[in-house]
Design goal:
The protein is of the alpha+beta class and 107 residues long. The protein has one domain (18-98): YefM-like fold, CATH 3.40.1620. The protein has helices at residues 21-26, 28-38, 57-82, 88-99, 103-106, and strands at residues 3-6, 12-15, 17-20, 42-46, 49-54. The strands form two sheets. The protein has a three-stranded mixed beta sheet. It has a two-stranded antiparallel ribbon with strand order 1-2. Strand 4 and strand 5 form a beta hairpin. The radius of gyration is 24 Å and the shape is elongated.
């Protein structure tokens, strides 16, 4: 079960789901069902220390997509910071020059 603790009106802390390795070994299908139902990673400990992270394939794919988005946003922010941008009118002017005067209506 995923626990959500409200710290204030604007801040929420999500408690991670932590299970011992013996539970994974003795109840693999239950851990798999939990990973699918909670859609959050499950942290597996060995001798009280973090050892593995188990998650559904869907959660894994979503995590990869999120990381890819963060990478693209960072690159975009670097373009903004370096001044490598064009205004919307500049883009439309270039488009009109290439495709004709009525290009804006075709968009």
């Amino acid at each position: 079960m995923l626990l959500v603790c409200g710290l204030s009106k604007h801040m929420v802390f999500v408690m991670p789901n932590i299970r011992p390795l013996t539970e994974l070994r003795n109840n693999t299908s239950g851990i798999a069902m939990l990973a699918h139902s909670e859609r959050e990673p499950i942290f597996i400990t060995k001798n009280g220390y973090a050892d593995l992270v188990v998650m559904s394939y869907q959660t894994y794919e979503e995590s990869l997509a999120r990381l890819d988005l963060y990478d693209k946003l960072a690159k975009s922010q670097a373009d903004v910071d370096a001044g490598r941008l064009k205004s919307l009118p500049e883009v439309f002017d270039k488009y009109k020059a290439k495709y004709g005067a009525n290009a804006r209506e075709k968009i």
